[in-house]
Amino acid sequence: QKRIRVPHLQKMKETGEKWAMLTAYDMYAAEIFDEAGIPCLLVGDSAGNNVYGFETTVPVTVDHLVPLCRAVTSAAKHAMVVADLPFGSYQASPQQALATATRFMKEGLAHAVKLEGGKAMVPEVELLVRAGIPVMGHIGFTPQSEHVLGGYRVQGRGSGADALLEDALALQEAGCFAIVMEMVPAPLAKRVTEELRIPTVGIGAGPDCDAQVLVWQDMAGLRGGRMPRFVKKYLDMRAELGRAAAEYAAEVRSGAFPAAEHSFEE
Ligand code: KIV
Ligand code: NA
After folding, report:
1. Do 248 and 174 have their domain in common?
2. Residue 1 in this model has a pLDDT that exceeds 80
3. How many whole angstroms from 203 Cα to the centroid of ligand 2?
């Protein structure tokens, strides 16, 4: 199987085949998810929370993400790798967005980029698409604006519903190949998905989107503490890894590790 590209994802919209997307920030995650058949991997600015230990995505820079992107792209043989444009790296002008996206395509070797925002981002999206860079949109709850939005809140309720649909349509017309919808009421996400020609990718946006995306450390239970409602934990990796580390340490203390089989003869 060759590299997944924009037409493959578009085709799945047309045939009604749903697909899953995951974040990845390093080689093994990329390799494992690629082998599992995940067609699209996101080097998200959620690396701020999940790799770098920041509290939000706001401090994440292009320099933080480019090396992660290169690792993921090198390891993933089939998946389309999408690089997230970090806060402050694209909102100043279409020219700034093009310079940043170009850096990801050249140095991070990404196959597409993602940026947050609706109508306001149309000039940026248009320029990138004109330059030959596939762009994924991101509307609803947009974590880079959490200081304006007032924290993690469902977006597009009540009178916000029509505005969200207009944002989605504007991004589609600007040339986006797909749109992430984050924390949007399920009926609204369904309506947007039906109105759009391009795929929608939901996170906390109900079952009717064309695709779903989750942060892998959430899905695999590596992250501790309370999980958002939209996460399903498919593995308890934090507990498993903690158990392995404690067992290893106990065996070192007791002398059970290393055994003869782990040691070299003269
Ligand atoms: O950075 C990220 O992980 C994201 C997804 C949750 C869509 O933007
Ligand atoms: Na993101």
Report:
1. no
2. no
3. 11
